[in-house]
Amino acid sequence: MDDRLAPPETRVEYLDGAELFAGPAELPQATQHFDLTYVLGAHIAKGYRGAVDMLTRTGEASDHAPDASVFAQKPDRGGRRRLEELAFEICDKQALAVPTDKARRLIGRGVRRVFCILVKQRRVLEWSRETDGWRPLPKDAVIEDPCFVRPLPIESLLDATSSDDAVARALLQKRVPALEQAVAEAEARGEARGAALGEIRTAQEVITIVLQARGIAIPAEVARAIASCNDVNKLRRWLKKAATTTTAAAVVAGSRRKR
Fold first, then answer.
1. Which residues in the chain come in under a pLDDT of 50?
2. Cα–Cα distances in Å, from 169 out to 63, 182, 243?
3. pTM
4. Which domains does the chain have, with CATH numbers?
């Protein structure tokens, strides 16, 4: 895994002896790179690690770097990093022939699964060993794999709003320690104030904690709506919204007029 043809920390890759220059990206490919790593990072399971532009030697004359990849974190017996299990390529202006050649060699090297995101067509492809070619994935499909804590929705790779939803669900599935501790402390304070009142206050606090943990700003008007709500069932509905929404206002939308 440590043998190199391409000089590390450069934009040079090699494919069948031909030198390729991996130039900087423009919109929309640049944002697609960001969205891909954003979603992957949240979904990666314990024991695995994600990487961007990590060189992989796939043959005597080939040494190239997938746009993103996932590999087992534990080194092999020789202390070297393990071959990636998943690899992702993003294709915009580049001819599909280049990702195709890369995918064929990555699979031949032992990579389990290779995906390609077509930016302009807004499609995701997966390499098929059976056909030795790309297989389109439906937009409503998911990628199920041991590398992920939960199935990764295809739509989350193509739409920014869906990306936020998928990331929120993955983080909740991961049981992030800081979030778990905050929820536990809120529940403990709720119990101390009594069962009925505690459930209300806990729900109010957890909604706020979830929004803050996801980096969503909470306007004063929304904070007041949450703090003044004493309807447990409504708070439970708001909590579910807080795990997937993109704005705090959407959590209480349509509810303030009914109080």
1. 256-259
2. 36, 17, 7
3. 0.67
4. 12-159 (3.90.1570.10), 175-258 (no CATH)
